[in-house]
DNA sequence: TTAAAACTTTGAACTGCTTTCATCTTGTTT
DNA sequence: AAACAAGATGAAAGCAGTTCAAAGTTTTAA
């Protein structure tokens, strides 16, 4: 039905091998035949069938990305970076979401690995099984971990410890002492996760300012939504009346909930309560009051991840690459 | 390198054809051989190479989605629907963003069509060329248009006219007469675009309530962001001091800008100014005041689009399908 | 007991492209 | 004019599957 390399060959009066060589810019082809063949290619609007090509080359020209959901702020911004970077390349992006369903992660990874669905694999804030990682290594399929760390894999993350530290330090410098912190799930004492790292940075800052750590000023949340923010502030206030600051390490979006709840209760920000967010969303500059926040360029993370993925897919990376992007404190009016 | 169907066949002591049949659950295979082969498949962790399979079947098991960007609210919510629906299916999702660059749209579509990269194509709020649409039709690649309308393609949209009408009607019923409307770009008088449809619905409501249409109460915006909302309200007020309502047909997000600007100017919502948004974002329920808005379930749009895409890919849809989802007025406190 | 029917299994052909190797042209040199 | 090198082309094999027709096996009927 559709145009194949043979159709081009016939019309150009050469063999299909020659056409293939033209496409691959083989030096053996004379400029004349090259021009002739290329003319036919454009005339017939010939595009190589990527399935056939992939099959014979053992390549897919595809980068697979796995995330829990792609419809959240974090993933969205990450994808923006991927988009920006992949625009110029020949690679396609394939998305797989686990939707937090048990077993799906394994299923996806097996499919990609054994079914040869991608040339590189990016795991977005999901920790793969150790055995699976080993399987990837064995089969030579590069794997790039975002906001997770594992030996043998390329790792790309933001410095969450530093982010937590910067936020708390800023508040402490302003003389605040009762600083509530809102974080994602800590899963016990598991180290290396971003909520834990941010909490640790916060604790380190307290130490430096000789302020005691108060367990009641830590609020773990789950959904990262607006409501979480509102509830967290309420919770803090019900336990500790002297609260004078909130560091919402769970993200700006959740932080908007904190602002809203404060407004509702007649608490003035930043006079009565200083608030610092985490993310540096575009919107956080225009809410009321403009949010002081830790900016981490997830978009840049995406761009870097894509670059690494391509290099890894082409075998340019022998050693696992570890990149840590530095967050930045953006001072606005909320603190 | 990796396990092929032949490895399975050899180990199971059957021909590779038999293995293929087992995989496809062919009734001709006896339960005995089936069980035997399946055991080997799991043992060897065999997964069919989807490139080879796609090549021979002329199928890719992929749905391509094209949008300007995927990192906006609309696209994100649409993808959420796709995600929900595609979870159970065997299909993969491929995203292509045009980034508004000239020529990219055509390039993407050609690649998908002639390079056989997908079994169905979803265009998200982008109008393809007429010739290109015809090419798709010729080659039997189904095309699903979201929020756009073209003859011969499957079409899926929300009833923007109705939405515009409902919003304006609600405000008029409350006695408001000077209703500013904020819409996306109208591109002259081009019909069928969602901003235009919403405006028309608004005008129809005015007519029914015998209120004259005032050109100065229409504000076209471009970026759909927070600032657009702030600027629009300022613009209205500079022209028309008696403004008593704003219908932000450009979306809730922009509408938050309107609320913010009103707050800054000391204008009480809804007492001095009634405000109605458009989208029904999750967040709009929790801002201050909770936003009265037109809810359109973009997520549902995504789900439906995926279903149609699959059906179309499998040749189950002879006639172009046209679905219009009804928006809904959510009455909260802002109007 | 044997032929026919019914059911399983298998070999071969095919999908569209790349790549290696052998062949066929050239053009150059002697 | 013959010999040779170098460059251009083409034939064939292979990638990993599916599918159809044919072969093999078992069951049924005569």
Strands, helices and their partners?
The structure is a homodimer of 335-residue chains.
Chain A (H helix, E strand, L loop, with lengths): L4 H8 L3 H8 L7 H14 L5 H8 L4 E6 L5 H14 L5 E6 L6 H11 L5 E5 L5 H10 L3 E4 L7 E5 L1 H14 L5 E5 L10 H15 L9 E3 L5 H14 L5 E4 L3 H13 L9 E6 L12 E4 L2 H16 L8 E4 L2 E3 L5
Parallel strand pairs in A: 1-2, 1-3, 3-4, 4-5, 5-11, 6-7, 6-8, 8-9, 9-10
Antiparallel strand pairs in A: 10-12
Helix pairs in contact in A: 1-2, 1-3, 5-12, 6-7, 8-9, 10-11
Chain A binds a DNA duplex (30 and 30 nucleotides) through helix 2 and helix 4.
Q: How does this model look, in words?
A:
The structure is a homodimer of 335-residue chains. The first copy, chain A, has helices spanning 5-12, 16-23, 31-44, 50-57, 73-86, 104-114, 130-139, 160-173, 194-208, 226-239, 252-264, 298-313; strands at residues 62-67, 92-97, 120-124, 143-146, 154-158, 179-183, 218-220, 245-248, 274-279, 292-295, 322-325, 328-330. By secondary structure, chain A is α/β, with parallel strands linked by helices. Chain A folds into 3 domains: 5-48, Orthogonal Bundle (434 Repressor (Amino-terminal Domain)), CATH 1.10.260; 57-158 and 299-325, Response regulator (Rossmann fold), CATH 3.40.50; 160-296, 3-Layer(aba) Sandwich (Rossmann fold). Chain A is elongated, with a radius of gyration of 26 Å. The model of chain A has no long low-confidence stretch (mean pLDDT 90). At the A-B interface, α4, α5, β2, α6 and α10 of A face α4, α5, β2, α6 and α10 of B. Chain A binds a DNA duplex (30 and 30 nucleotides) through residues 4-6, 14-18, 20-21, 24, 28-30, 33, 48-49, 51-58, 116.
């Amino acid at each position: 039905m559709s145009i194949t390399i043979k159709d081009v060959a016939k019309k150009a009066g050469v063999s299909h091998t020659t056409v293939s060589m033209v496409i691959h810019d083989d030096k053996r082809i004379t400029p004349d035949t090259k021009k002739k063949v290329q003319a036919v290619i454009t005339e017939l609007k010939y595009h190589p069938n990527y399935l056939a090509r992939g099959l014979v080359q053992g390549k897919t020209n595809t980068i697979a990305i796995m995330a829990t959901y792609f419809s959240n702020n974090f993933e969205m911004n990450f994808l923006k970076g991927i988009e920006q970077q992949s625009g110029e390349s020949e690679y396609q992006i394939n998305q797989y979401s686990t939707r937090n369903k048990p077993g799906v992660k394994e299923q996806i990874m097996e499919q990609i690995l054994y079914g040869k669905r991608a040339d590189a694999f990016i795991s977005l804030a999901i920790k793969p099984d150790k055995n699976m990682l080993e399987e990837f290594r064995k089969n030579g399929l590069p794997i790039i971990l975002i906001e997770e760390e594992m030996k043998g894999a390329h790792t790309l993350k933001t410095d969450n410890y530093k982010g937590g530290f910067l936020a708390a330090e800023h508040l402490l410098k302003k003389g605040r002492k009762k600083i509530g912190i809102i974080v994602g799930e800590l899963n016990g004492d598991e180290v290396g996760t971003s909520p834990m790292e941010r909490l640790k940075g916060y604790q380190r800052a307290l130490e430096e300012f000789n302020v005691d750590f108060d367990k009641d000023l830590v609020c773990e949340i789950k959904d990262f939504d607006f409501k979480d923010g509102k509830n967290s502030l309420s919770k803090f206030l019900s336990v500790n009346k002297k609260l004078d600051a909130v560091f919402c390490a769970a993200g700006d979006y959740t932080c908007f909930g904190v602002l809203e709840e404060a407004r509702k209760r007649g608490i003035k920000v930043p006079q009565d309560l200083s608030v610092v967010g985490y993310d540096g969303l575009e919107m956080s500059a225009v809410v009321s009051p403009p949010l002081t926040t830790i900016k981490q360029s997830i978009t840049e993370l995406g761009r870097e991840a894509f670059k690494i993925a391509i290099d890894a897919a082409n075998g340019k990376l022998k050693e696992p690459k570890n990149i840590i992007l530095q967050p930045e404190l953006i001072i606005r009016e909320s603190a």
